[in-house]
């Protein structure tokens, strides 16, 4: 029979932001968190007030990406959980509550419950955009999150490799099942730009995501090159999209696409 949209099941929970975006990937390691952090940076640069909920419970990397790796614990005031702040972005991460190297072995429903709690009980301060960095993959935790959270749309990160694309397709199918609009596909590690000569090399192939987006009838948000700078900047805690240059421009265009 017809099923009620579970995302409308609790109308009393206020929407935490004007626009709630999930950044998802069919599998780990494609740069989902890098994309989430840089989209946050690009949107901030474009004048938006941005928050990130790091829901990647198995490998929370948003704290390190934003230079918050030394943040331990979360303060709670009478208004709710107080997010950490980095470069103007509000951040709540499971990484703030777990010790480094301490594996999280929660099962799907527990994860979904924790994420829901973080989403609803944080004093986000009504940002323009809230980005949820999803756990990688399409298991029951991911499905539960997609089903129960008020997500306006999903951005799917993938690499040009066929295998990654197969996984990306699974992620898209998951969001379609939960009636979450796909805001677009973004191809990460698209071409390798040699830091010495600038020559592009197509290590994982190139262009497959654009073609896939066309086939699936979803927006293509652009290509992010594989660069040493991007990897290095991830480790220094200030996403490259805050600054100027070709990679920042690519993220700026992707951010425009997300808001379109
Ligand atoms: P995921 O969230 O999909 O698991 P991450 O965002 O944590 O992936 O990225 C995995 C690793 O790849 C990190 O070390 C990150 O710095 C690096 N990385 C991601 N995207 C790029 C890129 N375009 N160029 C260079 N390194 C990248």
UniProtKB/TrEMBL annotation:
UniProt-recorded Gene Ontology molecular function terms: ATP binding
Stretches that traverse the bilayer: none
Keyword Iron-sulfur tagged: yes
Entry keyword set: ATP-binding, Hydrolase, Iron, Iron-sulfur, Metal-binding, Nucleotide-binding
Domain of life of the native organism: Bacteria
Domain AAA+ ATPase: 18-169
Coiled coil: none
Residues given in the record as ATP binding sites: 26-33
Keyword Hydrolase among UniProt keywords: yes
General function of this protein: Binds and transfers iron-sulfur (Fe-S) clusters to target apoproteins. Can hydrolyze ATP.
Subunit and partners: Homodimer.
Family the entry assigns: Belongs to the Mrp/NBP35 ATP-binding proteins family.
Protein name: Iron-sulfur cluster carrier protein
Species assigned in the record: Hyphobacterium lacteum
Source taxonomy: Bacteria, Pseudomonadati, Pseudomonadota, Alphaproteobacteria, Maricaulales
Complete-protein stretch covered: 91 to 350 of 366
């Amino acid at each position: 029979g017809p099923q009620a949209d579970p995302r409308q099941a609790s109308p009393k929970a206020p929407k935490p932001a004007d626009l709630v975006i999930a950044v998802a990937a069919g599998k780990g390691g494609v740069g989902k968190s890098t994309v989430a952090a840089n989209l946050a940076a690009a949107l901030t640069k474009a004048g938006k007030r941005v928050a990130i909920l790091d829901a990647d419970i198995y490998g929370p990397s948003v704290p390190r990406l934003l230079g918050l790796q030394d943040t331990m614990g979360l303060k709670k005031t009478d208004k709710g959980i107080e997010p950490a702040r980095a470069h103007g972005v509000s951040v709540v991460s499971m990484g703030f509550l777990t010790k480094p190297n301490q594996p999280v072995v929660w099962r799907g429903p527990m994860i979904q419950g924790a994420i829901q709690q973080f989403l609803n009980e944080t004093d986000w301060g009504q940002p323009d955009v809230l980005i949820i960095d999803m756990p990688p993959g399409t298991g029951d935790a991911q499905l539960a999150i997609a089903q129960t959270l008020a997500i306006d749309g999903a951005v799917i990160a993938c690499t040009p490799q066929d295998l990654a694309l197969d996984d990306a397709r699974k992620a898209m199918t998951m969001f379609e099942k939960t009636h979450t609009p796909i805001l677009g596909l973004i191809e990460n590690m698209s071409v390798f730009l040699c830091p010495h000569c600038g020559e592009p090399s197509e290590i994982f192939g190139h262009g497959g995501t654009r073609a896939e987006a066309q086939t699936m009838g979803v927006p293509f948000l652009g290509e992010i090159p594989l660069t040493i700078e991007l990897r290095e900047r991830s480790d220094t805690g200030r996403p490259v999209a805050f600054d100027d240059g070709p990679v920042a421009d690519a993220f700026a265009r992707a951010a425009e696409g997300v808001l379109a």
